[in-house]
Amino acid sequence: QVQVLESGGGLVLVGGSLRLSCLVSGIDFRLWSMEWDRQAPGKDPELVARITDRGLTTYLHSVEGRFTISRDNAESTLYLDMKDLKPDDTANYYCFVAAHRGPGTQVTVST
Q1: CA neighbor of 77 nearest in space, from 106, 97, 107, 91
Q2: DSSP characters for 53-93?
Q3: Which of the 8 DSSP states describes residue 42?
C-alpha cells in the first residue's frame, strides 16, 4: 500500500523560506519520477516541480530560481526548498508519485 505524507508547511512572511518534505512508503522510491503540485482556493492545481528517477528536474516558470526539488532515495523522501516566497505561492502543496498523493501541507505567505 502506497503512503504519501507531506510536512513542513506553515506561515511565512514575504521573502521568507520553507523546506517541504514528502515521505513515501510502499514503493521502490528510487524507480519513480515524482512531483510537487499545489492548489490555491478557487484555482486549478498546478505542477510546481518534477524530478525524474535520474534526477532531472523541471519547474513551473514562476518558481524557477526560487524553488529547488530534490530527493533522498535512501530515506524515501522528496523535498522542495522554497526561498523568496511571494503571496502567490500561498497554496496547499502535495507530492504526487505512482498515481498517489498525500493530503498536502499548507503554505501561507503573508505581507
Answers
A1: 97
A2: TT--EEE-GGGTTTEEEEEETTTTEEEEEE-S--GGG-EEE
A3: T
